[in-house]
């Protein structure tokens, strides 16, 4: 269980690794509820650690993980006065390893970041567990439909972030 949480934590911090591939094994070992809790916990811990890296180690370390121009662009878009809804949408729309580093660098309020992280990771953890279960049970239709639903949700959230940022920039 500890190894699964650690792998989930790492997957929340680096782009080239996903703990979702281990979900079917975890579901087989600990059931859906156990896997959901462990996965969500790992992702939350990874997000917390990435926030701390951004906050306390700053640009020099984060610059090795994320392109400096992207960081600068997100800093311009988000700024220190971003409302919670902006952070929530940002957290939901971009890959999970990015917001913690960026918001840590921006010194965003940790409690609001943690709330946004917990809220946005929740549906992805649920979807990952159900995708893993459908894979184990050989239900390809459910597997494909859930996969499509996650993609559509991501696109919807990305468009929402762009709309909010566009509205914010025009005012």
- Domain module count: 1
Share in β-strands = under 5%
Give a count of the beta strands, DSSP E runs of length 2 or more. 0
Radius of gyration: 16 Å
Separate helix tally? 7
First and last CA, distance: 49 Å
Helical residue percent band = over 70%
Mean pLDDT: 83
Structural class, please? Answer: mainly alpha
Low-pLDDT stretches: none
Q: Tell me about the largest β-sheet.
A: none
Global morphology: globular
- H/E series, N to C? HHHHHHH
Walk me through the structure.
This protein is mainly α and 171 residues long. The chain has one domain. The protein is built from seven helices and no strands. The protein starts with a helix and ends with a helix. The relative contact order is 0.14. The mean pLDDT is 83.
Brief digest:
The chain is mostly helical and 171 residues long. Helix content is 82%, strand content 0%.
Topology:
Elements: H1 2-11, H2 23-65, H3 68-78, H4 84-93, H5 97-105, H6 110-136, H7 140-170
